[in-house]
Every structure is written in C-alpha cells, then in structure tokens.
Amino acid sequence: MPAFISHSPAETEALGEKLGRAAARGLVVALSGDLGAGKTQFVRGLARGLAVVGRVHSPTFTLVNEYGGGRLKLFHLDLYRLETPAQILAAGIEEYLSPDGVTVIEWAERIFEGEHPTSNIQHPTSKLPANVRRVMIEVMNETERKIIYDDLGA
Q1: Rounded Cα–Cα distance for residues 134 and 29 (Å)
Q2: Which three-class secondary structure state does DSSP give residue 6?
Q3: For the domain bounded by 3-149, which CATH number is listed?
Q4: Residue of 8 and 127 predicted with greater confidence
Q5: How far is 12 from 145, CA to CA, in rounded Å?
Q6: 135 in Cβ contact with 27 (< 8 Å)
Q7: What are phi and psi of 53, to 5 degrees?
Q8: What mean pLDDT is predicted for residues 121-128?
C-alpha cells in the first residue's frame, strides 16, 4: 500500500483530489484516523477531484451528506456516533456500499471490523469487497500526517 506524508491540510486535500479524479462509479473509500487527523480535509479534496459543487463538512450529526453537481455524486458518511453493528444497520448503511457514485465512510473501522451480521464484510486486514479501498490517516506530529492508502487508480 502506498504511503504519503502530508505536511499541511492543503497537501492532504491535494491527495484526496488526485484520488477523486481517478475514482470510478461504485467506489467506497473506508477512511480511518483519529479525531483531528484530517479525514474531512481528505474528503474535501476528493470532492474537488470529483468536481462536486458545495461546501463539504463532516456529517457527524446527520450521518450522511450527499453532494451532487460533479462528475459523480458523493456520499459522505460519518460513523463516529454509531457504536454497534445494530446501530449501523438501522441507519441504512448497506445502501451506500454499492453507490451510484462514490461513498466515503469516516470511522470505517466500525463497519469493516469483524464479521458484519448481514454481509461478507471482513476485518480491514482481510480481503475487502472489490469496490472498497482503505485510506488510513495517522497523526505523526502537529503538522504531519502519514496517509496510507490502497491504490485507487491514481
């Protein structure tokens, strides 16, 4: 898996933009990282790469933000407030796993950890479905982030 060291939010967005330009319909990005790691910055860049119109912000309290007007529709999910597989299922997450556009799931480890009760989703170290790609953001220090990602064609 390639790794990138970002030295600023602008560099994190630039990587997201590069991956957004290469994204194909049906892609699901499983995004992981601590609070403040830069997950939403990455999604802002990805949205720009998809030519999505509008301000991108974290859907922590709404669960899903949908953005259109670009090359592909973007579904931006945040699972931070959901703690159990039952809560995730009740929220209707399954429909976003085969999107008519691109789905990005912040706190994806909450759905891709262990065996999911209604699908064949495996632990992140296992083989994920073909349309799911991982992006993990690790805080190295106040200004640097290590971003490890599956090849998204970029």
Answers
A1: 6
A2: strand
A3: 3.40.50.300
A4: 8
A5: 8
A6: no
A7: -95, 140
A8: 44
> For helices 39-49 and 9-22, what crossing angle results, to 10°?
40
Nearest by Cα to 88 from 57, 129, 121, 55: 121
pLDDT for the residue 34: 93
Cα separation, 135 vs 107, in Å, equals 11
For the stretch 21-77, pLDDT in tens is: 999 999 999 999 999 999 999 999 999 999 998 889 888 778 899 999 899 999 999
Report the SS3 class of residue 15. helix
Structural contact between residues 63 and 90, judged by C-beta atoms closer than 8 angstroms: no
Q: Which SS3 state, helix, strand or coil, does residue 121 take?
A: coil
Chain centre to alpha carbon of residue 25: 14
| Cβ within 8 Å of residue 148, ≥6 positions away | 1, 2, 3, 134, 135, 136, 138
Instruction: Enumerate the domain spans of the chain.
Output: 3-149
pLDDT at 127 over 70: no
Residues belonging to the chain: 154
Cβ distance 14 to 45 under 8 Å?
yes
Rounded percentage of the chain residues whose pLDDT exceeds 70 = 88
pLDDT at 64: 92
